[in-house]
Amino acid sequence: MQELEPKTPDEVKDYGVEWADQLGGATISSSDWTVPSGITEDDADTDGTATVIRVSGGTAGQEYTLTNTITTSAGETLQRAIRIRVRTAASVAGY
């Protein structure tokens, strides 16, 4: 599981997953994110080989696991999970 840069509850932040190494020349046909309660998916997008999710909220001191499921142009279904920690503004500076 990939752990990404933390955020504060007040930040609206983008997180991405680069899939190119697993696509073997295919592209992403569709992308879906599973987001646990407590953190909010504001937007999501894909550019053919990467996916991005914009999230807001969360509770300081909590970590959230988001799962990205994609379908490729070759018909494969792949999943990757990312972990986002939510911290106070003071602790993010020195994460």
CATH homologous group name: Immunoglobulins
Proportion of strand residues: over 45%
Tell me the total number of β-strands.
7
Give the proportion of residues in helices. under 10%
Series of H and E elements: EEHEEEEEH
The CATH top-level class label: Mainly Beta
Rg, rounded, reads: 14 Å
* pLDDT averaged residue by residue: 93
CATH A-level architecture:
Sandwich
- Rough shape? elongated
Structural class category: mainly beta
Q: How would you write the strand order of the largest sheet?
A: 1-7-6-3
Count of domain modules: 1
CATH topology: Immunoglobulin-like
Largest sheet: 4 strands, mixed
**What are the segments in which pLDDT stays under 50 over at least 5 consecutive residues?**
none
- The count of helical stretches stands at 2
N- and C-termini, Cα separation: 18 Å
Describe the protein.
- The protein has 95 residues and is mainly beta.
- It has one domain (2-92): Immunoglobulins (Immunoglobulin-like), CATH 2.60.40.
- The protein contains 2 helices and 7 strands, in the order ββαβββββα.
- The chain has helices spanning 20-23, 89-92, and strands spanning 2-7, 12-18, 28-34, 39-46, 50-57, 63-72, 77-86.
- The strands form 2 sheets. A 4-stranded mixed sheet has the order 1-7-6-3, with no helix packed on it. Strands 2-5-4 form a 3-stranded antiparallel sheet, with no helix packed on it.
- A hairpin with a 3-residue loop joins strand 4 and strand 5.
- It starts with a strand and ends with a helix.
- The model has no long low-confidence stretch (mean pLDDT 93).
